[in-house]
## 1
Amino acid sequence: MHTGKKVYIGLRPAPVNTGIVFHRSDLEGGAWIKADPLHVVDTCLSTNLGKDDARVATIEHLMSALAGLGIDNAFIDLDGPEVPIMDGSAAPFVFLIQCAGIEEQNAPKRFIRITKTLRAEDADRWVQLEPYEGFKVSFTIDFDHPVLKNGGQEVTVDFARTSYLKEVARARTFGFMREVETLRRMGLALGGNLDNAIVVDDYRVLNEEGLRYTNEFVRHKVLDSIGDLYLLGHPLVGHFSGYKSGHALNNTLLRALLQRQDAWEFVDYSAKRAPFSFVEATAAASRAGGALGGTTQVRRRGRAACAGGKGRTSASMRPAASAGKAAFQALRTFFSWRRSQGTQTGLWQSTRNTPPDQENSQVRSCASRGSRPFQAGWRSRRRRPSR
């Protein structure tokens, strides 16, 4: 998005308690940067990690997808300085991870439960974390623009009642045409275009396909916030609120939280059901219109198949025999079962960091049934093929 450079990305399984770790494979000797609020070195229009001379930019959409799917441990390989923007949302990353597969790991999933209200402010902007038995995100933006005003500038998403995939994952980043030249003079948005962002002029949306949600702009701020919050390395149990905030204020709040050890505690739900689930409502979301608008993989170990749902059953469960009600029921059962056990999750297999013609055959098998995935080897500025 910002650097305009082509990059390949690969996601690999990682052992328990690894967290999310980025690997710059293009640097001599490699460079490893763990996702952590204290490793954030720049927040100008995106969240950027750094360690020594290594940098990884624009991580928030991928981090949001990992949070939304409950991935605790993964290695992220990059051969460039920035995570590819894909279509400007988290949906392509969600698809990529689903095609790789999600696996339970033999360790309790640890949550950070907010016990005291914590707030960070900057002029009239603010962010806040407060106790709540679940995970809820509220966000308000305030743009004096007819499109944004008409679509709504406030949203609250309670993930005990709805699905990340349905309500958040597809919301794209956005920008204003009048700011493009200024941003590019600053060395930003060099790879931005109508394929990877919503662009508005003074009166209308310039993207031919329009908006995915009537309030897509504020939903994308929720997506960004979830990605920033997941730098903590654990799902939150609490209520996050933001008013006109961005990556800088989000990171300020996280750093303050880490310093206030009386405001939070680690909890696990290995003995009882967790109070929320990002993806548990996926089946219902799929019936209501779908999270990714494509096909779904229902996987057994050793082979992949595509079916008309959105999610997957686990190796130890019976896969749905056909698209439809049985598949949805299996997916609902899987996600409910996995969350109720409170165990960590990681990738079942790698999404290989190779050119598209050498891409993982199981990822390709999903594409061969009529979907349009973003394969792991696709470049950040490459358009989706027409079919």
## 2
Amino acid sequence: MKLNFYRVAAKSNAKGLAPVWCRITHNNNRANISLEIFIEPGQWDNKTQRVIFHPLADNYNNAIVQLQARAFDAYQTLKRKNSPITADAIKQFTTAQTEAVTFIQVIEQYKAMKEAETKAKTITTKAGTKTIAPVITVSTYKGISHKAGNMIKFLRSIKKSNLLISELRPDILDKYRYWLQNTLGSNSHQYANKCLYLWQGIERYAYGLGYIDRLNLLTYTVAKGFAETYDEVPHVTEIELQRIINYTPGNITMQKVKDLFLLQCFTGMAYVDSQLYSDELIHTIEGIEILKYYRAKLRKQKALATPLLFADVKEITARYNGKAPKLPNQTYNEWLKILQAACSIDTLLTSHVGRKTFGMRMLNTFGFKMEEVSRMLGHSSVKMTEKVYAKVTIERVLTAAYSNNIAA
């Protein structure tokens, strides 16, 4: 038996990425196994049959070694059993060996891979040493880890801790959606979709490692009945915001929580971005101060905040040497509940409500256009802004009434 790993250039996609296959050859008989690894031409070494110059080279090469070991083990097993040895038989036995792997085991492996992607890598090229930036941010990994943790909790709650990766079926996602709604109280269509993509992503990862030979969750979509209506964007009203501004904290931690929440309300920054805030991000363009920064979530997308509230922002940051108050996300969210109670806020305060409040204020209080608010928030498209912020609030109706002199 001979194994040959190679990049199939003829299967290149629109981005020029081609898959890596394993060809099993025995007695002039061949069978192919796809590793679900897609790379550029310069990222494959034909001599060593390994991935090079790629940020995930270690993970991909590990998958190649694992598949190689399983194939040789399959060959030896067939030989011991005196079974007919063909390339197809070796392929089938190689993929069948992985059926004993549980889904929870694959989740843990996937988390470990994603954690490795948060670290920069140094590689040696012909031009010298090169440092490759992390593939994902730490905050993105934390989101994945949190959702993965919920998946494990769900499987244990339905007594499916030993569910095999080969036993995954679409109906389990219906049960998971029900669990999200009734156990976690999550009715967010967006969050449900993110969870769905993670289930599918982990299944594709298992497929790439050869644990399964087909994708069962690929065509599943979140039912429309589960969709969230965006009529109620979680935000604080102008009256509630004024209560927070006027509130006098009783200790240093509460002062930081209040200041950080107001900074989000005044700039539209997400929590992860706010922790990197500095007054140096404020630039003067034609006499107008504009906040410019790269969103951690999108990396390349610049966000520009309105100049209307920078006096309030600088008043806050002056207490922290021109920066935002630093708070761990969990601590911040816990103390926001105390702030909510102290200021009699109806909306459940979380680290994202400040950003939502900014978006709603820009649209409904200050009257900016949707595309302008989309740019301020750093959304990747106006459609995203329209989807979330399309609601016309009573505040906007009243503002329009007064501006047109039709109020009583």
## 3
Amino acid sequence: GSTTSAYWVRSGIYRRQKLRQTSTSNTPVRSWRPDLNEMASIKPGVIQSSINEIRYQYPLKDDVWFNEIEPLLADNGVNLVLIGHSHLWNRTKVGNMHYLESSNVGNSYGAYYVDETGTYQNDIRASHANFWNKVNSDNPRWQIEDYPANGDPHGRRMAVPSKFSPMRMENEVYPELPFVTSNELSVFSVLDTARGTVQSYVFDASDQNSKVRLFDEFSIVN
């Protein structure tokens, strides 16, 4: 058999109800339904008077993706890994495996990138000075060695777009930057399965007459 437990909070006290379900050829499994009248009387409560902070650290040396997943994918012939979340476009290559992050659709906060020419000044980490002050304090909440201030934490080299740098659409004085991060420029990518290529396109979402332009293309066929 199996045991199902339900936990409720009533006036700040845990209440637990158990139901044991059995299943045989002659005994059907009895479904459990809560007492709706009882549930209606349940009110949110505070279990304890204090709130504890739980902080997760991610040491680079213990990075599961870098140490275990990436080698597994590369050793088994994976040639394209799609990434999202960070609200920017960039790509890199490890061996014969390509990484493509193509999620720039606004709400961007800059890139972890230090422009050696000094022209691009929207480095997010430099702009959040309070974070770096805490990291470099006598009693830091985070370990400085786990938070590189520039580029990829594991030293992967980002590729410059093969056709042109869309960031110059935002500011023509920018150098060739290996990323797109903007609240005006939107990016999408297309995988051509017949040719084995990936094309990335950009358009200016703030301009209704903006044309869609191809700015990067690469082959995943080794």
